[in-house]
Amino acid sequence: MKAKNEGHALTNAGEDYLEAIYCLILEHPGDDSVRSVDVSERLDVTKASVNKALSSLKDGGFVDQTHYGRVKLTEAGRGYAAEVWRRHRMLRTFLTVELGVDEEVADEEACLMEHALSADTSRRLLEYLERQGVTIDKE
């Protein structure tokens, strides 16, 4: 049996924080940083929780934080976050398109499942969706 989160450098929560930062940046083109309070609101967690998570993400080399507190993804952080967001979108698409799951339920469940997929399973799911004529955009 393989270890939990094999191939994942972060915990589920760490991946959720990176994904939230990434999505907030995508929602505001031209702005490559976010406020920690926005992350707090997005994830419905306390500012203290965000600060603790950001400290861990900084130590791991996934984010930088400016003197004024804005959070930026490093190159490694952006790549990791993009992959988590891609897995989320693939799973949500599979659940809604292939299984007919309600969009809200599919989104919640994809958020839980995205942390468990290995790179191999992600690749296979993407190939399956592509064979079905379903495309997952880059961002």
Explain what the structure shows.
The chain folds into 2 domains: 12-78, Arc Repressor Mutant, subunit A; 82-131, Iron dependent repressor, metal binding and dimerisation domain (Diphtheria Toxin Repressor, domain 2, Orthogonal Bundle). The mean pLDDT is 90. It has 139 residues and is mostly helical. It is elongated and about 50 Å long. It has helices spanning 12-27, 36-43, 47-59, 75-98, 103-113, 119-131; strands spanning 33-34, 63-65, 71-73. The chain has a 3-stranded antiparallel β-sheet. Strand 2 and strand 3 form a beta hairpin. It has 6 helices and 3 strands.
What are the defining features of this structure?
single chain; 139 residues; mainly alpha; Arc Repressor Mutant, subunit A; Diphtheria Toxin Repressor, domain 2; 2 domains; 6 helices; 6% strand
* Low-pLDDT residue intervals, each spanning 5 or more residues: none
Radius of gyration: 15 Å
The strands making up the biggest β-sheet line up spatially as 1-3-2
Shape: elongated
Tally of alpha and pi helices: 6
Please, what is the CATH homologous superfamily of the largest domain? Winged helix-like DNA-binding domain superfamily/Winged helix DNA-binding domain
- Biggest β-sheet strands, sense, barrel: 3 strands, antiparallel
Q: Which structural class best describes the helix and strand composition?
A: mainly alpha
First-residue to last-residue Cα separation = 33 Å
The name of the CATH architecture of the largest domain is Orthogonal Bundle
Order of helices and strands: HEHHEEHHH
CATH domain class name of the largest domain: Mainly Alpha
Q: What do we call the CATH topology of the largest domain?
A: Arc Repressor Mutant, subunit A
State the domain count. Answer: 2
**What's the mean pLDDT score?**
90
